[in-house]
Each structure stands twice: as structure tokens, then as C-alpha cells.
Amino acid sequence: MSNFILSQEDGSFALGRPGYYVLIAVLLLAIFLSAIIVDKKQKNTKLSAKRLAVCGVAIAMGFVLSYVKFELPYGGSVTAFSMFCICIIGYFYGIKAGLLSAVAYSILQFIQSGGSYMLSPMQICCDYFFAFTALGITGFFYKKDKFIPAYFLAIMVRGLFHTIGGYLYWMDYMPENFPQSLAALYPIIYNYSYILIEGVITILILKIPAVSKMLKRLQAIAVCD
Predict the structure, then answer these.
(1) Predicted confidence (pLDDT) at residue 93 exceeds the cutoff of 90
(2) What is the secondary structure of the chain as a DSSP string?
(3) Looking at 38-52, 95-109, 134-148, 158-172, which range is the least confident one?
(4) What was the pLDDT predicted at 14?
(5) Phi, psi of 78, rounded to the nearest 5 degrees
């Protein structure tokens, strides 16, 4: 048990590396078991040629927009709504389309920059395959008219996988000018800073009535076969 939960000098506790692996396994199992159950309940989620084309366009747009970014001082970058492009797929077409499209997007993200940051296979999974696949969980909100909660949940789960990977592999790479009093929170601050900035900006724009109406019209066009 001591390998899973480690006692700190200040009397607090932290997860050991095996504990993080178990946490990742539990998260993935919960997501995919839930997806299987939900997919059986969702109707009209078959991927027609039109829907496949929409998914492809959304993935391509997300990939292109991921190059339009603003770098933050301690690392990480705010992109031009790239997460939004992937999140709408599951919201439009259900959990199966959402997760499959997000997996495809995660592969593109790895190809884009993963080769420069390879520490271990699990690190690659945490930073790319698991994290970006999480954007597909908006499919749980299919036909529920709650895109903003779906989007927020998806980006938070993405951040969670990045953060776990940060604790496992990136603590030694913490910048020297990072406040030492916050060192234990470095992966959380690093990852959620850029994710939440982009997320908040996206949500504020989606709150604009004209944009909200446009999203609903886009959804109506996308789902009409």
C-alpha cells in the first residue's frame, strides 16, 4: 500500500507512481464502460457519409487551429478554439463518434509535436492519446441541449490526464523561476492555466446570443441526413 500512497515530510500524503497508474486505469475504464452503456441507449447515431465528412472537417479545423496559439510564460499554449472543434463532434453525433474522432485527433496531435517530447510510452499516452481522447466525452450529452457543460467537462478531463502525466514525468522539468511555494501544484497550474483560459474564452463567445443561435443552426444542418 505504501507504494500507492506516499507519506510526505509535512505529514500530508501523495500518490506514488503505481497509484497514478491505478488512477489512470480507473478513469479510462469508467469512461469506456460508460461509453458502451450510453452508446446502446443513444439512437440515430450511425455515421453516414455526410456525418463522416462533418467529423473529418471538424478534426481538420481543430488541427489547423491548434497551430494558431499564444504561448504562456510557464509553458502551454492557448489555441484558437481547437478544442471546441473536436468537442462538437460528440455533442452532434453521440459518444461513439465523439470518442473515435477524438482518438483520431490525438494521433494528429502526437504527430504534430509528440516526437519532440518522448519520455516513455505512458507519458505519450497521458499527454496525447488519453488527454485528447477525453474531448470526445461530450458525446454523453448527445441531444441534451447542454453544450457548455459538456464542453467544460471534456476539457477538465483532458486537463486531468495532462496533470497526471505531469506528476509522473514532468516535475523535474519545472522552470527555475516558478514559485517554489507552489511547486507541488506545478502540473495543475501548468496544464489548467492554458486549458481554462481557452475554455473560458470559448464559453464567453458561445454565450453571445448570435453565436449560440449559429451553433444550433449548425447542429441542425449537421444532423439532418
Answers:
(1) yes
(2) -TTTEEE-TTS-EEE-HHHHHHHHHHHHHHHHHHHHHHHHH--S----HHHHHHHHHHHHHHHHHTTSEEE-TTS-EEESSHHHHHHHHHHHH-HHHHHHHHHHHHHHHHHHHGGGS-S-HHHHIIIIIIHHHGGGGGGGGTTSS-HHHHHHHHHHHHHHHHHHHIIIIIGGG--TTS-GGGGGGHHHHHHHHHHHHHHHHHHHHHTSHHHHHHHHHHHHHHH--
(3) 38-52
(4) 62
(5) -95, 120
Name the phi and psi angles at 184, rounded to 5.
-65, -20
Q: Tell me the Ramachandran region of residue 46: left when phi exceeds 0, alpha when psi lies from -120 to 50, beta otherwise.
A: beta
Residue bearing cell 501523495: 14
CB 66 within 8 A of CB 81: no
